[in-house]
Automatic annotation (TrEMBL):
Belongs to the 3-hydroxyacyl-CoA dehydrogenase family. Its EC number is 1.1.1.45. GO terms for cellular component: cytoplasm. GO terms for molecular function: L-gulonate 3-dehydrogenase activity; NAD+ binding. SUPFAM superfamilies: 6-phosphogluconate dehydrogenase C-terminal domain-like, NAD(P)-binding Rossmann-fold domains. It comes from Planococcus antarcticus DSM 14505. Pathway: Lipid metabolism; butanoate metabolism. This is L-gulonate 3-dehydrogenase. The keyword Metal-binding does not apply.
Amino acid sequence: MEKISILGAGTMGHSIALSAAWAGQTVSVYGINEQDLENADKGLNNKLKVMADNELFTAEQAEKIRKRIRLTTLLEGAISDSTFIIEVVPEVLELKKELYSRLETLISDDVIIASNTSGFKPSLLAEEMRQPNRFLVTHFWNPGHLIPLVEVVKGEHTDEATVERALNVLKEMNKKAILLHKEIPGFIGNRLQYALFREAQALLDAGAASKEDIDAAVTYSIGRRLPVTGPLMTADMGGLDVFAAISNYLFEDLAKDQQSGETLSKLVEEKKLGDKTGEGFYSWEPDISAELNKEREQTLIHFLKTDLKADKL
């Protein structure tokens, strides 16, 4: 097994650490201060309790998993014996580049540096590195401990040995890794997600339906199929002649906006940012927020259990 270090103790950082520790790996997690580590520790304990309560493992196993995760505010200590580093710092290009520059003075030549960026091209991130051959993107999806997908994106100079080691690490973590053959902004998942989000915004701005009915159109139709079949397999099952015919007349009328829609822009301007501010497209009272977040978490756990059963067959 690789020796993993995660640089960033926020929501994604400690969730990725939990995935690795659950798979039996020992992980070091670097946070910028003690408050950062305190939040990570609380997040880990809460997640472990929920997972144990849902019988993904026992309470005794949860304790063992937690002991495999070491939290520290010392960067050098976090990476002292690391062979595989996952960077999970804020999406600020210069911040990431500064971190890589510092890392390259502290680690040996065979240590891999992976970024959890959700959109930056790896070649852009690595353009000032001395050894860009050992750099790539491993984009985990939030919540990182429950969603299997990780998008692996190699840069212009990433060598194949780096890719193979990353794929092996993710396999050991029981993740579903997909490999992109081209560097494209947003990778695969976010491009698909935001294509749907753009059309949803356009429908709302045009007054085609209420926000509730637009959301329902997804959750009670295509959302029911997506856990089993993606868009291309769905087309195969429905008949490519049918999907081609619909594409030919519908694509012309689909949203082509190059910026956020009118409603979204207005909400952001008014600082109505959704769950975290109490109001967005919807109103988010504390009890509603807690209920929906719990429901989503339970649904993800259900699918994760299904995945684990399938892996055992």
